[in-house]
Amino acid sequence: MSASADGVDVAIVGGGPVGLATAALLARTTQWRIAVLDASAAPPAAPSDLQLDSRVFALGRAGQRILAAAGAWAMLSTEGAWPYQRMCVWDGGLPVADGAGPSGVLCFDAQDVDEPDLGHMVSGAAMSQALRAALAEHAHVEVRQGFTLAGLDTQVEAVRLEAAEGGAVSARLVVGADGARSSVRALAGLEAHDASYGQRAIVCHLETERAHESTAWQRFLPGGPVALLPVTGHRCSLVWSLPDDDADAMLALDDEVFAARLGEATGYVLGAVTRVGQRFAFPLWRLHAPAYVARRCVLVGDAAHVVHPLAGQGFNLGLLDAACLAESLSPRADPGERRGLRHYERWRKGENVSALAALHALHSMFALTAPPLVRLRGVGLRAVNLARPVKAKLIRRALGIDGDLPRLARA
């Protein structure tokens, strides 16, 4: 199938996991001709050791079910996904007893909600490979590399997508899955409200003296949270949010000094950091588009909303967008028909706005440094830790098994 010669029913701009998942879900529920247009010259390389694939996503149960429906989970679960059973969160002002973990900690356990785990840490590259393999099973889907969107020309029955490299694709529906700096959003005339947190997140793989015991550890410090996300026995993925200047200083340190600073920041909860991989950093900000839909165009994932990574919910929200869009569009109708697109927009905006507000409030609460407020925050953490019904509700929400879910995200 040649998208450029015949045109397609759906053109998905963006070859990241959310764009690929959207394509896979639509491919399984319709016979529409689908083109995924990826600006990258080639698919991501396979992960290897500590130096590659710094992107690790926290995948909840809803996201796992959506990837299963997309045909990707069976492959991904055997290589590139690591389950975890517990999550421990504590305030930077609380002490850590050597070898015993932090005191006054808020702990979530999968057993509290009769689930086998709290989710999986998933390699971004492995996930992309699994989704691409799932798409290869559908003859009516094409993934095109090296397509940089330069223009949109919207007509009554189709949209012409012009590539910076030359050539064009015509589609009845354009899906913007091209990230926070979405070209689809800009070219379709959709606004976005955004604000910087003045922070950058340092990410890398590392190894620690003690095994993580299938537990995600997160400590809230005045400059931002530091999280050790469990991968293999002694290996974790780091997400460390820091003010911009502090992040630059940390990136400039050699590995040995950086490991020592990181050990201090985590209170040596897993002992010393014994090895670190290549470090990367990305700016932290929040974003929301007041409208997700324009004529024959729709936004999913980071193109529509960006949240702080402190709870690992951004990718899960994007997968829910993909599943809701697939459920909202009738396979017997014009994919660009406004009724289905508006249904998707109404469905997802409320959920995404609520998540954005909750995560921003959580970030703001832990940014407070006045001693009375810090003490009050500690009391609150301990109270929640003792309130089993409240903890169970939070766990179910984080897993994505609570709320207004699409059919593909349910058991």
Describe this structure in words.
The protein is α+β, with helices and mostly antiparallel strands and 411 residues long. The chain has a single domain, classed as FAD/NAD(P)-binding domain. Helix content is 34%, strand content 30%. The protein has twelve helices and 22 strands. It has helices at residues 3-6, 17-29, 61-69, 73-76, 124-135, 183-187, 244-252, 255-265, 314-328, 338-367, 371-386, 388-399, and strands at 8-13, 34-38, 56-59, 81-84, 86-91, 96-97, 101-102, 106-109, 119-123, 141-145, 149-154, 159-163, 168-176, 193-208, 215-221, 224-230, 235-243, 273-276, 280-288, 293-294, 297-299, 305-306. The strands form four sheets. Strands 5, 8, 14, 15, 16, 17, 18, 19 and 22 form a nine-stranded mixed β-sheet that branches. Strands 1, 2, 10, 11, 12, 13, 20 and 21 form an eight-stranded mixed β-sheet that branches. Strands 3-9-4 form a three-stranded antiparallel β-sheet. A hairpin with a 2-residue loop joins strand 20 and strand 21 (297-299). Helix 2 packs parallel to helix 5, helix 2 runs parallel beside helix 9 and helix 3 crosses helix 9. The longest helix has 30 residues, at 338-367. The protein is globular, with a radius of gyration of 21 Å. The two termini are 35 Å apart. The model is unreliable at 1-5 (pLDDT under 50).
